[in-house]
């Protein structure tokens, strides 16, 4: 096999593996299946929870709602005249859908200067960090996924002002996130011992 052919095959395989690594999990409704499929995700999620004291299930449920576990997720574009693609609604990007300014704030305060929004370990740490701030600033219980999601979506100032009260759709979404977190926690209770046997530290 020629050198050029070998190089082409190597590049092709690398691209395929990279695509598989960044693709969303196949079974997003079961957190045990997610962690079984995505090597390293449980370790990263557990590390973030240990650091910021917010449950794995809550952080993962928020991530699912924000991006569907898509590492390059972006908000939809606005439509000009109903059909011409315009600018995006915000600079939100990646697993956590963090905006540019919020991500920069996280990198300086966490601190985590090398963090990337399209890396799972950085994104799950960001979500847990932000939830921890909500717990401290807004006196929300770490287990209160409903209010943590409202604070995540509206920001701490918006939550304190009660901006979500006029958004029935957002409160309905927060209930869905809370229900997903409860399901994730029930599932995790059944498989976490096994997952911990893989990652003892």
UniProtKB/TrEMBL annotation:
<dbReference type="Pfam" id="PF19489">
    <property type="entry name" value="SLT_4"/>
</dbReference>
<dbReference type="InterPro" id="IPR045795">
    <property type="entry name" value="SLT_4"/>
</dbReference>
<keyword id="KW-0732">Signal</keyword>
<feature type="signal peptide">
    <location>
        <begin position="1"/>
        <end position="23"/>
    </location>
</feature>
<dbReference type="InterPro" id="IPR023346">
    <property type="entry name" value="Lysozyme-like_dom_sf"/>
</dbReference>
<feature type="domain" description="Transglycosylase SLT">
    <location>
        <begin position="10"/>
        <end position="191"/>
    </location>
</feature>
<protein>
    <submittedName>
        <fullName>Lytic transglycosylase</fullName>
    </submittedName>
</protein>
